[in-house]
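Morning - FE2/S2 (inorganic) cluster inputs below, output right after.
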Amino acid sequence: MSRNATEWRRRPTLAPTHYVDPRIYTDRALFEEEREKIFKKVWSVVCHESEAPNAGDYRRCRHMSGKELLVVRGVDMKIRAFYNHCSHRGNLLAMEPSGNARRITCMFHQWSYDTRGNCVAITRQKEGYQDRVSRKDMGLREVRTEVGLGGFVWVNVDDGCGPLEEFVGDSLDYLKEELSAKPLEIISYHKAVVNSNYKLWYDTNSELYHDFLHHHNRKIALIQPGYWDRRVHVHDHGHVSVDSMECRYDAYEGNDGRQRRLGWPGGEVACHKLIDLFPTMTFILRAPAFRLDTMVPLAPDKVAIEFRGFAVKGDSAEDRAARVRDHNSIWGPFGRNLPEDEIAIVGQMMAMKGGDDSAYVLHGREEPSIQNEIGMRHYYGEWSKWMERGASDPFGNRAIAAAE
Amino acid sequence: MTTTGTATREPRGEPTGSGFESLAEREKAVRELVARTCLTMDAYDFAGYLDLCHPDFRYTITTYSPELRKDITWLDHDFAGMETLLEVLPLHASDHFLRLVMSRHLGVYTVAYSENDTRAAVVSGLQVFNTARDGGVTELLAVAKYHDVVALEGGEAKLLVREVRLDTRMLGETGSLIPF
Ligand code: FES
Ligand SMILES: [Fe+2]
């Protein structure tokens, strides 16, 4: 039976933890609040150490708070991150996405900085400032940075934040072997600016119910033994992990009928492990390929998603080619799965953004299998703590009771 | 991998090796073949596209990543792989894309003959536009170059190698399930 306006807006007959108010995906004030209360407070990956392998290598990155960052490997081989922001009059320092330099010189008035963020040259300093401005006070803004847990570069722009280990907790333990057996090396990078809310991408990555969307996943996983035995596990701080299974690559028409023999050091051949970290990251190992998604939310209805693919440092040429192929044929911009997921979250936003007359969004599946939506519920539990708002009624004004 | 011709011949009265009647015929066959690959794909006529390809066909989509300061290969198929990919596409959400009008705009820049005139290295400029069925808005999806090798044998032209060398690395909001 179709619903009238009241019925459409009525709370579902589920516990309030099992659905969310659609305005958490569309409201601009909430989005600004997320930036202040979450994005500027938590750890996130901005790149991988293999993107700056040599002394002096730098990488221009965007932090989820929206701030431009400059990640630099110093002459001491230590990786540091700074605001990519000249101390003089705020110009962007590095304009290229990556490069190598012992000194970064701002193109505007030619102030220079070394790889530790010290300001080392101010043009016509004496003449202009006499003794009123000192180079030692004009260093770059350095942000809390840790390299680890697979060689990722983790950043937190809150100087008073807790340690990375505490934030990650035991959520990555499940990939510990794979992330530490051998160093990772980046093989693919691309970005998509998608007209949707960042949480909708995270939702998609953390609910496996949508395996029905992917012809590829239906074939290699959903109809295969072991799929329904998998479980979703929740970890402190909103993180989630999903049990593995042996994917049957040979069941997908596009794989030449061949099962994969190449695994991942420390992991099983053809395993499929997935970990979502609150609020914007997903690690997926579908051996032999490894993927990381990170996001920079730009607006309630716009998100930049960065996709990285990884291989194992020291791979043979043949293994490397196999990882690249299996990564990009499914997860690259011409891959089979990624566009499908993106189409879905664009569609969600198109339907939901028409004002506030959207129905509640259901996160209520409780089946004891991989398609339990506990991952999303756990995420919004964490979101509510940071935001001090319930995700099912963030403004406390939309209480149309559930039907009897 | 970027393929370019190794030797360019001066126009002569009669081409050798490739089995064409005249230089003009040969040139026409090369240019038409490259254009037809676009027209067949625009029409989602995958079988027609494969008919234009040589049995030793190799297809790649590559780009240079300034972020990683290296080349990336996003798609890599031989003939069989391409055939399977095109067969399986309609089973993916690509039916969404099949409802888009895709338009490949092509300009052949250079044609260079080699190997006793049995190979033509063709470089073309390519722009791919998507037109939405809903409202009919057209968006530029990608700018690229085709680096093709055309096999000329027995008076017939077939596409032997295609490298789609992308300038565009952010392909719309969602990437493209359909290659070009
Ligand atoms: S803004 Fe950088 S030197 Fe002036
Ligand atoms: Fe998906």
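Note: Chain A has a mean pLDDT of 95.

O.
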